[in-house]
Design a protein that fits this description.
alpha+beta, 201 residues, single chain, four-stranded mixed β-sheet
Length: 201
C-alpha cells in the first residue's frame, strides 16, 4: 500500500523514478506539490514543542496546547483542515541526511495518517528503520524509505557494480548510495537488506 501511495504521488507530481538520473530525490518538490493538505516544511535548530508553538503562532496559526514546551523533538507535524506544517530539527544531532529522512517521515504522516492524527504528531526520535513499535511510525518510516531510496535506483546501482566488478558488496553499495541519495548509511543498509538487493558478504 505505501509503495503504491508513493508511486501515485510521483505520477501526480510528474516526478517518476528514473535510475539514469543521479542525485537525491527532490524532496522539496514533493512538499511544494502537495495540495490536500498543503504541507509547508521548516527546519529549525534545537526543535522543541515550545519552539514549534511559537513558530506556528508567528504564522498566524491558533495552536493551543502542544504539550511540554521544553521537550526536544526530531520532527513535528501540525495539521489543520487544509494545511499542514512539518518541522524537523537541524542541529549537530540531526545532520542533513537525518533532516531529509525526518522531513520525508513527517510528509508520510501528512499523506498516510491525516485522518488519524488529531491536531499534531510529535516525534521525539525518528528511527530510520521499520522497527518502530508504533504502527504509524513504522508506516511513516516506510513512506520515507520508499520516497528517498527508490527500489529501481538501488537495483540499477547494484547492477552497475556487478557489471563493473562482478560482485555487489553491501558496504560499497551502501556507501555510494548514501552519498548519491543524501541518506544515512544506516538507512540505506536497512533498505538494501529489506529489498535483498546486494550480494552476501
Amino acid at each position: 500500500m505505501i509503495a503504491e501511495t508513493v508511486a501515485r504521488l510521483r505520477r501526480d507530481f510528474g516526478l517518476p523514478v528514473d535510475p539514469s538520473i543521479r542525485g537525491p530525490v527532490p524532496l522539496n518538490r514533493f512538499f511544494r506539490e502537495m495540495a490536500k493538505p498543503r504541507v509547508t516544511h521548516f527546519a529549525l535548530p534545537d526543535l522543541t514543542r515550545g519552539l514549534v508553538a511559537e513558530h506556528l503562532q508567528s504564522q498566524g496559526v491558533n495552536v493551543g496546547d502542544v504539550g511540554d514546551p521544553a521537550e526536544r523533538l526530531s520532527g513535528f507535524l501540525f495539521v489543520s483542515e487544509m494545511h499542514a506544517w512539518a518541522y524537523v530539527s537541524c542541529d549537530s544531532e540531526n545532520p542533513l541526511v537525518r533532516q531529509r529522512f525526518s522531513a520525508a517521515h513527517e510528509l508520510g504522516h501528512a499523506v498516510l495518517h491525516r485522518d488519524r492524527l488529531g491536531r499534531y504528531r510529535a516525534d521525539a526520535v525518528i528511527e530510520d528503520s521499520l522497527d518502530a513499535k508504533d504502527p504509524m511510525e513504522r508506516e511513516a518510516n516506510a513512506f520515507a524509505a520508499e520516497l528517498l531510496m527508490p527500489e529501481a535506483v538501488l537495483r540499477a546501482r547494484a547492477e552497475e557494480l556487478r557489471t563493473e566488478h562482478g560482485v555487489c558488496p553491501p558496504g560499497v553499495l551502501a556507501y555510494r548510495l548514501a552519498a548519491e541519495l543524501l541518506v544515512s548509511r544506516e538507512a540505506i543498509r536497512y533498505r538494501l537488506k529489506n529489498l535483498g538487493v546486494t550480494d552476501a558478504e
